[in-house]
Design a protein that fits this description.
It catalyses: tRNA(Pro) + L-proline + ATP = L-prolyl-tRNA(Pro) + AMP + diphosphate. Keywords: Aminoacyl-tRNA synthetase, ATP-binding, Cytoplasm, Ligase, Nucleotide-binding, Protein biosynthesis. This is Proline--tRNA ligase. Homodimer. This protein is of the alpha+beta class and 571 residues long. It folds into three domains: 213 residues, BirA Bifunctional Protein, domain 2, CATH 3.30.930; 136 residues, Alpha-Beta Complex (YbaK protein), CATH 3.90.960; 98 residues, 3-Layer(aba) Sandwich (Rossmann fold), CATH 3.40.50. The protein contains 13 helices and 31 strands. The strands form eight sheets. Strands 3, 7, 8, 9, 10, 11, 12, 21 and 24 form a nine-stranded mixed sheet that branches.
Length: 571
């Protein structure tokens, strides 16, 4: 490809609304352009990256025994009504009527569509197992699209669905997909972790997220370097502590203290000169319309997905100030668990707490030496705190490591949630009709492109891994008006192309510095620079990732470029 013909409008400055590196750099380097909130044009450089990502996905999915299909993006409402998700999915689903007044949705996911296809065609256990996948557009009307391709309203996704005659076979395929996903992301040259995860709206008995490690990631994960345990913080388990021995003998008398205008945990800690872990934090949540008090150690935070799962709730939210007053009769910031008229559920972190500080239920006052059981009733101790780095691993007890990450893939063991709702059955070897057991496996293709940038960039631009770079090598003649420079660059370019490589030649009549900046910004792994030293029979091979420049004779340039490229590739 010739740069003079390439549609890659690069920019010197980042757009004002771009917040994270991938958003800024993909726009600056000419990979994408914003069309509207959460909607992006994918330009030729971006398409080249996406096609390479899709090629790796297809190769590994096909190798794993899956088959590709293409499903409509318009989903008939009756299928979603049948599964019970037409109203439950939420406002993210874009709904509309056709000219005949029939209700449709733009597909945010395809469990209903694929289950409908399979239930019409699969009749016997002999037709199973089956794994079908597609790569195509999905639509979710995000309440707040942000971070470019990371959270867009329209995106490209690979979604696969497997169908089985038994739970055991569904689990076999689940781990087959787990290994397949591991190979996919490894081949892309990404640093990632597979972590236990919440099943969310998709449902199922268990799931794993594949998270690209990046400091700018929206999600958090913890993992144990000793035993391999890894989980998103939405799923990570806390170790349940033991109740202290002779606990009651340590109890002291409650003491009421004045704390004027001191509400927040940090303020209480400083005012009373006590550590935050000796203060009880009390929060009021509305759980499926009913108020519940959640007690947690002052230095910890409630992980609301875990809380939602504890109550098997459809919806949870923090109570408003008015609701707190209504349901407890106490002012926010001074809530007391004593004589509370709503049930109190306490996080595991409260179990070892003795003689702690809590609100007095009265404005500008707190209580010292409060103790659960003696002073207030706990309905149940539950695991609802966000697990952080340094806490013990729930499997082996060693300290956990905490990182931020970007979810790029998610696999679910669905079971019979959709097949039972939609009457997708098969006849087993004994002639008995049974629901098909299902699995679900997704990869955010456009998200992978953004996540790869979040993990691989520097102050000069993107640093693509060779496996998904738009071009593997760029040849840069510093002065196209110089015959020797231009002709040498053209010869190198043609020979690299003949070897099957993706090569770009910057044949523009532009200043060398301009060309170098564009090459670094776009992030092509290897640069072959043909400059003034051609008079001495030498060119430079530059490694984009390290900035290292190697001066080599012209006749060795191609082999050195190939050798350097191989060193960068995933082994």
């Amino acid at each position: 490809m010739r740069f003079s013909r390439l549609f890659a409008p690069t920019l010197k400055e980042s757009p004002a609304d771009a917040e994270i590196p991938s958003h800024k750099l993909l726009i600056r380097a000419g990979f994408i352009r914003k069309k509207a909130s959460g909607l992006y044009d994918i330009l030729p450089l971006g398409v080249r990256v996406l096609l390479k990502i899709e090629r790796i996905i297809r190769e590994e999915m096909n190798k794993a025994g899956a088959q590709e299909v293409i499903l409509p993006i318009m989903h008939p409402a009756e299928l979603w009504i049948e599964s019970g998700r037409w109203d439950a999915y939420g406002k993210e689903m874009i709904k509309f009527e056709d000219r005949h007044g029939r209700n449709y949705a733009l597909g945010p996911t395809a469990e209903e569509m694929i289950t409908d296809l399979v239930r019409k065609e699969v009749k016997s256990y002999k037709d199973l197992p089956l794994n079908l996948y597609q790569i195509g557009r999905k639509f979710r009307d995000e309440i707040r699209p942000r971070f470019g391709l990371m959270r867009a309203r329209e995106f490209i996704m690979k979604d696969a669905y497997s169908f089985h005659a038994s739970d055991e076979d569904a689990e076999r395929e689940y781990w087959n997909m787990y290994e397949t996903y591991s190979r996919i992301f490894s081949r892309m040259g990404l640093q990632f972790k597979a972590v236990e995860a919440d099943t969310g709206e998709i449902g199922g008995s268990f799931s794993h997220e594949f998270m690209v490690i990046a400091d700018t990631g929206e999600g958090k994960l913890v993992f144990c370097e000793k035993c391999g345990y890894a989980a998103s913080t939405e799923k990570a388990e806390a170790v349940k502590p033991q109740i202290p021995e002779n606990r009651e003998s340590l109890f002291r008398e409650i003491e009421k203290v004045s704390t004027p205008n001191v509400r927040r945990i940090e303020e209480v800690s400083e005012f009373l000169n006590v550590p935050q872990d000796s203060i009880l934090k009390l929060l009021v949540y509305i759980v499926d319309g009913k108020p519940v008090a959640v007690a947690i150690r002052g230095d910890k935070d409630v992980e609301e997905t875990k809380l939602k799962n504890v109550f098997k709730a459809k919806e949870i939210r923090l109570a408003t100030d008015e609701e707190i007053e209504k349901f407890t009769g106490q002012p926010k910031g001074f809530l007391s668990p004593i004589n509370l008229s709503i049930p109190v559920y306490a996080d595991y972190s409260v179990i070892p707490m003795v003689n702690f500080v809590a609100g007095a239920g009265e404005k500008d006052y707190h209580l010292k030496n409060v103790n659960w059981e003696r002073d207030f009733k706990v309905e149940a101790f539950v695991d609802v705190a966000e697990v952080k780095g340094g806490e013990p691993c729930p499997k082996c007890g060693n300290p956990l490591t905490e990182k931020r990450g970007i979810e790029v893939g998610h696999i679910f063991k669905l079971g019979t949630k959709y097949s039972e709702a939609m009457n997708a059955t098969f006849v087993d070897e004994n002639g008995e009709e049974k629901p098909i057991v299902m699995g679900c496996y997704g990869i955010g293709v456009t998200r992978v492109m953004a996540a790869a940038v979040e993990q691989n960039y520097d102050e000069n631009g993107i640093v693509w891994t060779p496996e998904i770079a738009p071009f593997e090598i760029i040849v840069i003649p510093v002065n196209v008006k110089n015959d020797e420079i231009r002709e040498t660059a053209e010869k190198i370019y043609e020979e690299l192309k003949s070897k099957g490589l993706d090569v770009l030649i910057d044949d523009r009549n532009a200043r060398p510095g301009f060309k170098f900046k564009d090459a670094d910004l776009i992030g092509i792994p290897i640069q072959v620079i043909v400059g003034k030293k051609i008079s001495e029979g030498k060119v430079e091979v530059k490694v984009r990732k390290t900035g290292e420049k190697i001066e080599v004779p012209v006749e060795e340039a191609i082999e050195r470029a190939l050798e350097t490229l191989r060193e960068l590739q995933v082994r």
